[in-house]
Every structure is written in C-alpha cells, then in structure tokens.
Amino acid sequence: MKEIFTMDLKGKLLIAVVFMVLGFMLSVQYKTTELQRNVRMDRVEDLSERLKIMEAENKQLLTELETLRAGAAKDPADDRMKLMAGTTDVEGEGIEILLDDSNIAKKSGENPNLYIIHDEDLLRVLNELRAAGAEAISVNDQRIVAMSEIRCAGPTISVNNVRSAPPYVIKAIGAPKTLSSALRLRGGVVETFEFWGIQVKIKTVEKLHIPALKAPRSFEYAKTVESKEAAK
Asked: Where exactly are the transmembrane stretches of this chain (predicted)?
C-alpha cells in the first residue's frame, strides 16, 4: 500500500514538473513573440517616420529646384545671350525693307550687273542697320547672327547656306526712325540704290516677328574660358 502511494506521488510530481516546464516554455515563447512584435512595430514606426522626413526633404528640394529654374529663365544675361546667338524667336517694333533688282531699261553696252542686287549690297544694308542699333535682323526669314555668311551663289545670294532670290525682305527690330534715317543718309545706301534703279521700299512695322536661327552653329574648336572674376 505504501509503495502504491509512493509511486502515485511520484507520478503526480512528474506530471506537475512537466506542466511547469511546459508552462515556462509557453511563457517564454509568448514573451519572445510579444517582444518580436513590439520590435517590428517600433521598426515600422521608425521607418514610417524616416519616410515622412525624406518626403518632406524631397518636397523642399523640388521647390528649390523650381525656384532655381525660374530664376535661370528670368536671368537677363541669359536672355541677352539667346538674343545674340539667335536661338529664340523675337518680336518688337522696327522696319521692313524690300529690295528688288532694277526695273530700268539697260542701255546697249552697259553692264547688267550694275542693275541687280549683289551680296555686297545686302552687307552694306546690314552694316548700316547694326550701326544704327538694330537688335535683331533677318533676310528672307534667315536670322542674321555674328557667324552668318552672305555670299554670291550664281544668280542668287546664299544666306546661312540657304539660297535666296530677289526680292529680298530685310527685317530689323529697333528704333524705327533711327534705323530708317541711317539708310536714307545723303550719299548713303538708299541713295546709291536709287541711282541704279534698285527698288527700295522701307516701312515701319509696330510688331515684327523674326524667327530663330534654323540651324545654330556647333563649336568644335572654340572652348569657353572661365573669367578671372568668376574663378575668385
């Protein structure tokens, strides 16, 4: 009887120990799971906060970029460079000049070349307009810039490597009265043309449109050099 009681007691103790171990293991597992869950939540919250900060910084950078772009677009120096390079269309008041070959009957034995427009004639007109302060010029809608070429090409005149035939329409943006007066000086361009019967018509235009250079020149050998003031 005593042995049976002892065995029963040992069995109960063993069962109790097993349940204690299981309880401990379950407790440890629950705490571990809870800890991992808390760590994950903390991690998610941390990442979420960092994402918000990065989004705010990105928004600020985009705002600064737009501000810089707007400032660059409004830079007067940049506008002047585009105007001089002829890379943008321009509008403004000025004059329009129409030149055509002479309609005077040639006398026998006279040189017919005296009664037609040559590249030198166009160059004289352009030089007078530039000297009078023309800010933009075109010949038959070919924008004239520093590197534009005007030369004889058989019976035509090549402007920016595009052949043109008379009549030639020259547009010049600037003070209309000043530009017109420069061409009409005594002994000047217009008077010389009229002597040979070259047809010249000049009119003031309140709003001239001069197109951009159709094929801007690319530079292969010339390189920009930083100014000493900018380097300081």
From this structure: 12-30
Question: 79-117: per-residue pLDDT in tens?
Answer: 777 777 778 899 999 999 999 998 887 777 778 788 889
Could you tell me the pTM of the whole model? 0.64
Q: Is the peptide bond before 167 cis (omega within 30 degrees of 0)?
A: yes
- Among the candidates 74, 102, 133, a domain finishes at 74
Residue 64 CB coordination number (10 Å): 10
Query: 220 lies in a domain?
Result: no
Instruction: Establish if 223 belongs to a structural domain.
Output: no
- The answer on 158 and 127 residing in a single domain is yes
Query: CA-CA distance, 232 to 227, in Å (whole number)?
Result: 9
- Residues 101 and 196: their CA atoms lie apart, in Å, by 9
